Amino acid sequence: MAANTQEPDVELGVQQSDLDSLPCVVESVSHAQRQQSDKLTQHQSISHGLKIHLQEEIVQLLEEDFQLSTDITDLHKKLQRDQRIHDEYSNKVIHHKTQVLELEKTNPIQLALAKQEKLLDQLQAEKAELLSQLSSKKSIDETRNDKVMRLKEEVESLRGNKRQLEKQIEEKETLIQEENKHQGSLLQDISVLKKRNHAQLLRLRNQVKEAQIRNHQWHEEANQMEQQIAHLQQLIADHEA
After folding, report:
1. Coiled-coil region(s) at which residues (predicted)?
2. Burial class for 82, CB neighbours closer than 10 Å (0-12, 13-18, 19+)
3. To the nearest whole percent, how much of the chain has pLDDT over 70?
4. For the segment 15-50, what is each residue's pLDDT rounded down to a tens digit?
5. What dihedral angle (degrees, nearest 10) is formed by the CA atoms of 136, 139, 142, 146?
6. Where do the DSSP E strands lie in the chain?
7. What are phi and psi of 79, to 5 degrees?
8. In a designed cystine with 113, which of 94, 165, 167, 188 is the match (CB 3.0 to 4.6 A)?
9. What is the distance between the alpha carbons of residues 83 and 87, in angstroms, rounded to a whole number?
């Protein structure tokens, strides 16, 4: 009978102990849940910040890529415009040279000079013939003397015309040489401009390639971060569930 009366007391003692430790267990569990919730909140904040940062970086890269594409398009247009100007100027130079050659062939001054030279040669031949005839004669015919004087005056006049024509031709040749020098300088400037534009185009193309490579790397990193964020969000969702 003594053993039977002691068993209920033992059971009551165990139950009372469990009741006394229950608040501590609840507090411990609550504290652990709060810590875990704080960590999850922190992870969510970090994930959100990383996502915003990646989005800003992607937007910046897209803007840089668009700007580089715009610069290349503008440069292509400028090169095409410069090439068109160069072609037009080259055609003008060729046309001008053709006109100069035709002018040299059909220039009235050249034709007049040739005619004057021919006439001068003829008069000089006549003069030589007359002088030869006069030298063989002792008596000088007054009429022939007047003719010789007239021929001399005509010869001097023709020589003056010839000198004037030669001076005009020399001036025109000087102008043509100056124009050719000017055209050569312009062609050289155009060549330098084409080389400089070509170098700028190559540099921009290299920049675009570097930007595209960097953009590709950023996209890969962004995808990795997106996967990590999705994984964290999945963990959070699983924990909340």
Report:
1. 109-235
2. middle
3. 77
4. 555 555 666 767 777 777 777 777 877 877 787 888
5. 30
6. none
7. -65, -40
8. 165
9. 6
Q: Distance (Å, rounded) from C-alpha 70 to C-alpha 64? A: 10
Question: What is the DSSP annotation of 166-208?
Answer: HHHHHHHHHHHHHHHHHHHHHHHHHHHHHHHHHHHHHHHHHHH
DSSP symbol at 136: T
Half-sphere exposure at residue 87, Cβ-oriented, CA atoms within 13 angstroms? 6
Whole-number pLDDT of residue 150: 82
133 is written with which tokens?
A: 């005839």
Please check whether residue 64 is in contact with residue 211, taking contact to mean a CB–CB distance below 8 angstroms.
Answer: yes
Instruction: Write the CA distances from 69 to 55, 63, 160, 208, integer angstroms.
Output: 21, 10, 69, 8
Report whether 61 contacts 211 (CB < 8 A).
Answer: yes
* Helix runs in 2-107, H state only: 2-106
Residue 154 in contact with residue 127, Cβ under 8 Å? no
Fold (topology level) of 54-240: Helix Hairpins (1.10.287)
Asked whether the beta carbons of 116 and 161 are under 8 A apart, the reply is yes
Q: How many angstroms separate the Cα of 229 from the Cα of each of 168, 171, 181, 214?
A: 89, 84, 70, 22
pLDDT digits (tens, 9 = 90+) for 99-141: 766 766 666 666 777 777 788 788 888 878 777 766 666 555 6
Q: What is the pLDDT of residues 181-195, one digit of tens each?
A: 887 887 888 788 888
Treating both helix axes as pointing N-terminal to C-terminal, what angle do 142-240 and 2-106 enclose, rounded to 10 degrees?
A: 170
SS3 107: coil
Domain boundaries, the chain: 54-240
The C-alpha atoms of residue 218 and residue 224 are separated, in whole angstroms, by 10
